[in-house]
Amino acid sequence: MTAFYAYALAIVQGVTELFPISSLGHAVILAPLFGWPVDQKAPAFLPFVVILHVGTATALLLYFWRDWLFVLRGIFGRGEGVRDARHLLLLIVVATIPAVVVGLVLEKAVRNLFASPFLAALFLVVNGFVLVAGDRLRRRSSRSGMELKALDLRGALVIGVWQCLAFIPGISRSGAAMVGGLVTGLAYSSAAHFSFLIATPVIAGAAVLEVPKMMALPDHGLSGLAITAGVVAGITAWLSTAFLMRYFRRHNFDDAMVPFAIYCWVAGAAAMLWLGLR
Fold first, then answer.
1. Which stretches of the chain score pLDDT less than 50?
2. Bridge partners of 186?
3. Beta-carbon contacts of residue 102 (< 8 Å; ≥ 6 apart)
4. What are the angstrom distances between the C-alpha of 177 and each of 89, 95, 108, 164?
């Protein structure tokens, strides 16, 4: 893989992992769609993907360092604020459990069933409807506009279950988690905030699961290009997170998901048409 394609994939990873437009769907679609010389079955590709995910997770840790420091206070601290910190930690744990269970039991079966470029493009279109559904369900919620501190464990579990839709290539993890947050009554900014917080253990956990395979490769599959691409993915992810948090704070109104849904519809339909004609 040349530097151009490595950095292109890193930028795509950094953007699509946080934007509600499916990083997995783009990973499945882009190479065959544009004819990129990327061998996803090559031994060096797995370490490359792991490094990209580590870069993204690191960016999220750095952006939300105050939240994670707050959580650490709940684990080791005492006094004022500890109860709220422990509540936030418990919310993150509960929301992460469904993804862990599904990942261990069904991930390979689901991804092997749906991981064709055409089906990923189809589910990218479906993802657009999921995002619009989140807007509609938000309007019907009796608790719409809640802050994150008002979220209870049942709501966290609902968000975690929604997040599991992302095991289907083309369905966005961040988008599904945000829709789950909107369904439970969270404000857009709070739903995005919590979606990014629970992304950190999910992304880091996925990377850790692949580390043993990576370590078995010559030189552990690492290269200077993979490491610099991971840095590029991290920088892109940090900028994406900053943009989205600002966007949802400023657009806390109905149909804030529509621009992302339109992108999914257009990009998914165009990819289906192009792949179908080839």
1. none
2. 146
3. 110, 164, 167
4. 17, 9, 21, 8
- What is the pLDDT at residue 73? 81
| Sign of CA pseudo-dihedral 125, 129, 98, 233 | positive
- CA 272/CA 131 separation, integer angstroms: 20
Encoded tokens for 5: 């394609």
Is this prediction's pTM over 0.85? Answer: yes
pLDDT the model gives residue 134:
87
Using alpha carbons only, give the angle 135, 93, 10 rounded to the nearest 5 degrees. 70
**How far is residue 278's CA from residue 267's CA, in Å, rounded to a whole number?**
17
Tell me, what DSSP letter sits at residue 1?
-
What is the H or E stretch that residue 211 is in? helix 188-215
Lookup result for tokens 């004819």: 35
For position 112, what pLDDT does the model report? 66
DSSP code of residue 42: S
CB count within 10 Å of CB 272 equals 19
Listed residue (185, 177, 175, 183) closest to 147, CA to CA: 185
Tell me the C-alpha to C-alpha distance, in Å, between residue 236 and each of 109, 134, 139: 31, 26, 32
Full domain range(s) for residue 170: 3-36+44-277
Return the residue matching tokens 């840790």. 61
Q: At what angle do helices 82-105 and 107-114 cross, to 10 degrees?
A: 60
pLDDT score recorded for residue 237: 95
Q: What is the domain count for the chain?
A: 1
Instruction: Identify whether the C-beta of residue 176 lies closer than 8 Å to the C-beta of residue 126.
Output: no
Residue 39 in contact with residue 45, Cβ under 8 Å? yes
